[in-house]
Design a protein that fits this description.
By secondary structure, the chain is mostly helical. The protein contains 4 helices and no strands. Helix 1 packs parallel to helix 3. The protein is elongated, with a radius of gyration of 21 Å.
Length: 106
C-alpha cells in the first residue's frame, strides 16, 4: 500500500469499516510510515477530538489512537482464529466423510 491509498483509507479506518484485507495492509503501512501515522493522528484529532471537546468530554489523543490500533489488531486476530477454526472443521468433515466411505465399502 502506498501513502496516497493509505491516506484515503483513514476515514474508513476511523469508522472501523475496512475489510480484513485492507485493514491488514493499512496497519502494516501505518506501522512503518510516520507521515501516514501523523495524518491518522490529525484526522482522529479532528473527527473524534473536536466532537468530544464540544460535548465537554475529556479527550486523550494518544489514548484514542492506541485504542483504535488495538481494536483493529484484535479484529485481525479474531479473523485469523475464525479462519483456522473453519479450516479445522473442513478437514474434520473430510476425514469423517472418508471414514464413512471406508466403513460402508467394507
Amino acid at each position: 500500500m502506498d501513502c496516497k491509498e493509505c491516506k484515503k483509507l483513514i476515514p474508513a479506518f476511523i469508522t472501523d469499516s475496512l475489510n480484513y484485507k485492507r485493514l491488514v495492509s493499512y496497519l502494516d503501512h501505518v506501522d512503518k510510515c510516520m507521515d501516514c501515522k501523523e495524518e491518522l493522528t490529525i484526522q482522529i484529532l479532528i473527527s473524534e477530538g473536536m466532537l468530544r471537546l464540544e460535548e465537554g468530554n475529556a479527550f486523550d489523543l494518544q489514548d484514542e489512537i492506541t485504542k483504535k490500533m488495538q481494536a483493529a489488531k484484535k479484529k485481525i486476530k479474531i479473523h485469523k482464529i475464525l479462519i483456522n477454526v473453519r479450516v479445522t472443521l473442513e478437514l474434520f468433515a473430510l476425514v469423517a466423510i472418508g471414514v464413512l466411505i471406508v466403513f460402508f465399502l467394507l
